Structures are given as structure tokens and as C-alpha cells.
């Protein structure tokens, strides 16, 4: 069944405390090549049947109203993934 | 309803009988923790507490609403994000924005719900140090003209408990400047910023002053023997939070005084 994937990231100008903690932990494990980490969220919305333009529009609407908070986050991607 | 003291004969204040006519709704969501404490604070201040359920379709006969602290819906998605769409919330949002200007107080998770509802600007993100923090916190009352701060003096310092993980208040610079210019920063952290909140902001109001949200918990500082002073004596008194509740009760009863 097709899924609609929605990716949400903290806005660039907002300090991401979780990403900061992760970037601090990486070098302790020997991963020294990464200067910054930002942590976002991925949502997978399963659709029973075909993904129409209308359903995709609904997903975009849901992404802006519930899945993200526009004050602190951006919806960076909404795409259809088959099976 | 008579409130039994938790210890000894101590009752925080001799509540004025005339305030009992004021009905303050306290909303319970799945995961709310502090609804009983908030209702108790209302009663100790002399008012009548009314239990409200998030799934209720109507607000009923209440003169003000408190959205208490806790972890509604387990803080899933974002703190307050799912509670914001509860059936009762749309009624509260309408009533708060109406000409009647229903007084609404959001405490901690309630504050997060109010920002998610767009009744208050900005948002809360994880504390800058990433830890859950519980401490007695000194606040300065910056605005004593809101529905919930009338019984305080501007500039007064109060000490009430603070306990949260997602308490870092943020908004863009333009919004912060507007909040400052319009006197809508209602409380500021004093001495120590416990979570990295912009400009030490602990609580804000809407433009009309009927909607107030803050991260610390006034309902936990309403009774002698159970407030900050008895823990470590950092100042204030055990009942510094009581003024929130007497403020709104006095405002509601108003002309009868």
C-alpha cells in the first residue's frame, strides 16, 4: 500500500538542543567528521488505495496543521512512496 | 465544599464567602497531572472549581478556565499538540477570543497547549540543558494588569515550583519585541534562567490580558507547609501562587466587592 512520507525539521534559526547533544556524543564513539547534527521527524501516512491529488493535498494540510508547528518547525518534504 | 487542611489547622487564607459564586473550570486531558491541585487551589482561594473533560462538546457554566499541567497525550508529537485539537479546546479558544474575554490560565503543559492553540504566540522547545528540572523558582511579576495577576504588584518577586522538560520559551525577535513593547511579558525568571527561555520569559499574555500562560506552577504554592519556603527558605512564602486564583475570582465577582 502506498505511503505518504512527511519530513519535519526544526527551523534553521532555532537551536536544536537534541541535535546539539547528539553532535557532542558522536566524537566519543570515534565519529569525528560531523560538525553539526539536527534532529527532525519522519511521518509515514498509509493510504488504502491510490494516492490522488486530493489525498496528497490533505497530507500537506495535515503536515502544516498537526504534524508540524510552524513557529518552530518546517515541513521540508511530502512525497509518495509506493509499497 | 470545605477544604480539609493537609496538615494541622493550616488554611492558606480565610477565603471570602462572596468569591464562592465564581466558577472556575479545570480541564482534564488524558495525561493531565495537576488538575486536582489546580481545583484545590481554586477552592482554597475561595472559588468554586468545576471539573471539565477534554471531550466535552460544551464549556458549560464557567467564569474562567484553567488548563493545568501534566503530560497530555504523553507529550507525543509535541507537548500540547494533540490536546489542542480536543473538542473542548475549540470552545475555549472561541470564548477566550470573544467579546466576553473568558479568562484562561495555562500552567506548564497548559501553557504549551495555549501556544499550540495560537492563543499565545511563540512555542516551547526542550530545555537547553536537555534535563527535566524541578526546583523552586523566583519570578518577577512584570504585568499586574492581567486577569490572573491583579492581586500582585508590578515588580513583585514570587517563588513557586517549576518542573518541566520542554520549558524553553522561544519566538522570533519581532514577536519578542512586540511582547515586551505591549507589556505582555507577564513573568520573568529572576536570578537563574532554568531552561534557556528567550529574554528570561516565564509567562506571557494575549493582547487583551485575559489569556495567560506560564511554565512554573502557582497551584503548588497555595498552602502553608507545602510551598517553597518550607523546603529551602530561598524566599517568598508558601502561598505566593495563591494570588493567581484570588485575582481572577475578585475580577469575576467584581462589582460586589
Model description:
The complex is a heterodimer of chains A (83) and B (257). By secondary structure, chain A is of the alpha+beta class. Chain A has helices spanning 17-25, 53-67, and strands at 3-10, 41-46, 73-81. Chain A has a single domain, classed as Mth169, Chain: A. Helix content of chain A is 29%, strand content 28%. Chain B has a single domain (17-256), classed as Class I glutamine amidotransferase (GATase) domain (Rossmann fold), CATH 3.40.50. Helices cover 21% and strands 22% of the residues of chain B. The model of chain B has no long low-confidence stretch (mean pLDDT 91).
CATH architecture of chain A: 2-Layer Sandwich
Which runs of chain A of at least 5 residues are low in confidence (pLDDT < 50)? none
Q: Please name the CATH architecture of chain B.
A: 3-Layer(aba) Sandwich
**Superfamily (CATH H level) name of chain A:** Phosphoribosylformylglycinamidine synthase subunit PurS
Subunit structure (chain A): Part of the FGAM synthase complex composed of 1 PurL, 1 PurQ and 2 PurS subunits.
Subcellular location (chain A): Cytoplasm
InterPro entries (chain A): PurS, PurS-like_sf
Organism (chain A): Pseudarthrobacter niigatensis
